[in-house]
Write a structure and sequence with these properties.
Keywords: Coiled coil. The protein has 214 residues and is mostly helical. It has four helices and no strands.
């Protein structure tokens, strides 16, 4: 049988006690919300996406919002109910249940966090390695382009020399030996062919490097 307050003073003390308990419950609920925000902050800092965990966080937040509403309504009516102590106990159980859900969420997050961090680091290392490799390949391509330019300039210079020697040979008197000019011309032609082969090889190497980058 419930013992009702027998005086105005005892009734006031009873209401103050209930209000204090209600305040404690609200404080615990705020603490739970802070824990959820901390978990979300950890996920944001890592730059990782955990669909399952985020879903449970949203579910937890919805649950907390619902519990806040329930707590607010019950807090307003708890003193008007005939069984105030029992209802306060129910509120306490409700908050403790929320605490257990947050603990479970934190444990689940911790279970996923370590392998995710490891995977994140491996992917970052792979990305950095690929980036470095691409930079090296681009540098090699620039060097090959420079070699092509130099080889082309040299080939043009020798081609001009070849044409000049041909003109000189044609202008020589018929009684003068042309063997020295002929030998020189053959050497230049040989060098021009070699440089064209080198340019072809460099172009092939450049295409292969571009394929590796792409």
């Amino acid at each position: 049988v419930e013992i009702l307050p027998n005086s105005r003073t005892s009734e006031q003390e009873f209401r103050e006690s209930q209000a204090a308990e209600l305040e404690n419950l609200e404080s615990e609920l705020s603490h739970l919300i802070a824990q959820i925000e901390e978990l979300e902050g950890q996920m944001s800092t890592l730059g990782l996406t955990l669909t399952q965990v985020e879903g449970e966080v949203r579910q937890q937040q919805m649950g907390v919002t619902e519990q806040e509403q329930v707590l607010h309504v019950k807090g307003r009516t708890v003193e008007l109910l005939p069984d105030a102590e029992n209802n306060m106990a129910k509120l306490q159980v409700l908050v403790e249940s929320s605490a257990q859900r947050v603990i479970q969420l934190a444990a689940q997050w911790e279970k996923h966090r370590v392998p995710l961090i490891q995977e994140f680091r491996e992917l970052k290392a792979l990305h950095d390695s690929k980036e470095l490799e691409s930079s090296q390949r681009l540098l090699e391509i620039r060097e090959l382009h420079e070699r092509i330019r130099l080889a082309a300039d040299e080939a043009k210079r020798k081609d001009d020399l070849y044409k000049q020697l041909l003109v000189e040979v044609e202008s020589l008197p018929k009684d003068i030996s042309r063997s020295a000019y002929t030998q020189r011309i053959l050497e230049i032609v040989g060098n021009i062919c070699k440089q064209k082969e080198e340019i072809t090889k460099i172009l092939h190497d450049t295409k292969e490097l571009q394929k590796e980058i792409n």
